[in-house]
Amino acid sequence: MEELNEADMLSFSPLMRSFTFNAFMVSGFTPISPGSKLDFFIHRPNGMKGYMMNLTLKGKGIIHHANGEFHCQEDEMLLFPPGVIHHYGRAKESIAWDHLWIYFIPRPYWSDWLRWDHKQGDIGRMRLPDHAHSQQMIQLFKEVISSNAVGASLPEAMAMNALERIILKAFQLQPASNRHNRDPRIQTVCDYIIEHLPEDTRIEELASMTFLSTSRLTHIFRKEMGTTIYGWREQLRVSRACDLLRYTQLNVTQVARAVGYEDPLYFSRVFSQHNQLSPRDYRKKFEQAPLF
Ligand code: FCB
């Protein structure tokens, strides 16, 4: 891909045009210097409808959240999940806060990769470990942003593809998801469950896949993951159901089936235990949330 300079990025940025957040993805570059046009605070008391990823290129930002604040700096990425309150802008003492950002409605199967280990006020934070990783990430953000360019072919598909690579790379850099740290047999089980989430996979099948007895597998799983196999699967099912309720038109019975529950009443009970809201109320809450 051709090198994009800052002026190009700005010209592709929606900040320079009128844009709507009622879209699957909006991305841009926000350069802030003291007193400049973009030097103001963004207040989002209800968060946003979709996710937002943010990468600082220069200077410092200050992020206020529900129970405090923190600074973000060069080579740091942030992940704002839907509905998370935030107010942010250039940190007072900093001569700049230039950042790249992508607002997006995730594809449902991305949700397992949108869990970051380190969070403050529900906002994911991650420092890129070295220059090479930073350059790679910046390049991917630029790919997403430049796919807005007039005349680019397959713009949406290309942008979603680059975004998926950003999400995967960021997830690979999370310490807990780092495959080398996890017992490979447990990793096999987790991967299998993720791939076959709606299926009624029995522990016996998982045990034979990993050449362990069922009791040995349940023991190691609990030790590694801090929960039981079925408990872990339930959390995943509920979290995938949340995405389907938020981002699709499927009705509650269809959502229940899609994540592995034949009985919608049972699904609603499990869902309410996790979210303190019924699936219907959960959907309503997000319908009412402002886009921006
Ligand atoms: C722009 C901000 C950027 C991001 C998008 C959604 O105005 O500069 O940080 O929040 O809105």
Automatic annotation (TrEMBL):
Work out whether the entry's keyword set contains Metal-binding. Answer: no
TM segments? none
Q: Which UniProt keywords apply?
A: DNA-binding, Transcription, Transcription regulation
Superkingdom of this protein's organism = Bacteria
- List each copy of the HTH araC/xylS-type domain by range: 187-285
Q: Which InterPro entries match?
A: AraC-bd, Homeodomain-like_sf, HTH-like, HTH_AraC, HTH_AraC-typ_CS
- Pfam families attached to this UniProt entry: AraC_binding, HTH_18
Gene Ontology terms for molecular function = DNA-binding transcription factor activity; sequence-specific DNA binding
Q: What's the name of the protein?
A: DNA-binding transcriptional regulator AraC
Provide the organism lineage as a comma list. Bacteria, Pseudomonadati, Pseudomonadota, Gammaproteobacteria, Enterobacterales
